[in-house]
């Protein structure tokens, strides 16, 4: 019985039932936990900033790709299957297109957007999109177009 009472007193005291202040171990543990939390904040911010930068890059590349595909579709149909002229390169991005002839009236157009970088790898592919260009032998008025 005496051991049981002594055990209850020690347990109460450890939980703060009778102590007047924090022990050195409690302070050290609190400082370590706080330090770990503060150290994790900059790492998390770097991850978030990198994700936002990448998302921004993809959004710009999608816009460039849409513009390029619409520009190519608006040009006259070419039978030679060579790349179409593009809108031009920007300071940060390069836009290229490839043409694959499926048959006489259909072409598969692939538009690639690269980020211009310096160093060993001059271009870094951001987005590649494929679309179709179809030869229409009739113009808007219904008359056959001759090329």
Features:
three-stranded antiparallel sheet, alpha+beta
Describe this structure as you would to a colleague.
The structure is a single chain. The protein is an alpha+beta fold. The protein contains two helices and three strands, in the order ααβββ. It has helices at 2-14, 24-74; strands spanning 93-103, 106-116, 123-134.
Total domain count = 1
Please state the CA-atom Rg, rounded to the nearest Å.
33 Å
Percent helix: 40-55%
Largest sheet report = 3 strands, antiparallel
Structural class by SSE content: alpha+beta
Number of strands: 3
Number of helices: 2
In order across it, which strands form the biggest sheet?
Answer: 1-2-3
Low-confidence stretches: none
Question: What's the SSE blueprint?
Answer:
Layout: H1 2-14, H2 24-74, E1 93-103, E2 106-116, E3 123-134
């Amino acid at each position: 019985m005496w051991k049981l009472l002594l055990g209850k007193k020690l347990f109460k005291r450890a939980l703060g039932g009778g102590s007047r202040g924090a022990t050195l171990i409690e302070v050290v543990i609190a400082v370590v936990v706080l330090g770990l939390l503060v150290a994790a904040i900059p790492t998390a911010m770097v991850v978030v900033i990198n994700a936002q930068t990448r998302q921004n890059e993809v959004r710009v590349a999608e816009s460039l790709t849409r513009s390029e595909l619409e520009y190519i579709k608006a040009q006259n149909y070419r039978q030679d299957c060579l790349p179409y002229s593009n809108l031009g390169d920007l300071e940060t991005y390069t836009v290229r297109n490839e043409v694959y002839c499926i048959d006489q009236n259909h072409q598969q157009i692939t538009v690639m957007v690269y980020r211009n970088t310096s160093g060993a790898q001059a271009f870094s592919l951001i987005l590649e999109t494929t679309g179709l260009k179809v030869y229409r032998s009739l113009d808007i008025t219904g008359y056959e177009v001759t090329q």
